[in-house]
Each structure stands twice: as structure tokens, then as C-alpha cells.
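Many introductory courses stop at the sequence. We go one step further.
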Amino acid sequence: MNMSLAPFMTLPKISELPDFGLYMDQVMTLMEKTYPKKPLTKTMINNYTKDRILFPSEKKKYTREHLMLLSLIQVLKRTLSLPEIKVLLSPISADLSKGEKASLYTLYETFYTLFHGALLLAEETKGSLEAQSPQKEVRILLHALLSSYFAEETEKLINTLA
């Protein structure tokens, strides 16, 4: 992977996530290690639980499935609003509350498979834009244009779920 992508965002493999319960402080340590730039806070995790984006912990312990959801939230929170994240993840959280894990595992595994390729494609696009204009101001405008384009496309997709 290109070096400039490495610090941008990571997504752990399912097998890299602990398969035993973690207390909140342990979850915080793991999230801070995995996502040092903008880690989740205890308050955020509690709010995600209150909003039913994240299913409740089991005897104050967080499972691998909690960590998978928190990893997805970590990716989403950079660009989506809380209501948009809720539309996407609350049905999965509801399934997990009923002991149904398949929808989360399918979503996470599929996203993990496509994750690095999508970042490489973004890096190629960035390189192409930089080659077209050495002027930073123009590149900023082009990046903002692409960001707006994908924000609108994301909103359209979320609206199909709502």
C-alpha cells in the first residue's frame, strides 16, 4: 500500500479483534491504538448505545461484534452525520441484540475486502489531479468537488435505506 495511505485509515481484520469481552477502558485503548488520529471517546460510545447504533454491552463487556461496529463507526463518523450512521447501522445493531450476527459479519467482511482497493483508487485519483494542476488552490477545489460528489451519492444511498 502507498505510504501516504497507511496513516489515513485502517480497518482491522475480524481475526485481529479480540474474541473475548473487553471493559470500556480496554476498548478505549484498542480504539486509540487502531485510530490514533480521531479516536472514539467513552461519551461517543455511550451516545451510540443510547441512539441504538451500538447494541448494549453484555455485563459491561464489549464483544468482537461491538468492536466491529465501532470500527465501522470510526470510518463513517468522518463524513456522515449521526442520523445517517443510525440509518445504516441501527438495523444491524438490532439484529445483534437478538443474537443475529450474520448481517454484521457479511457487511464487515465485504467492506474489508474492498477497503484497501478503494483507498488505492482514491490515491490514484489524487495523483491524477495533482498531475493536472500543480497549483494547490486548484487541487483543493478539485478535492472539495469530489468530496461533495461522493457526499451526495452517499446521501442518495442512505435515503434508499431510510
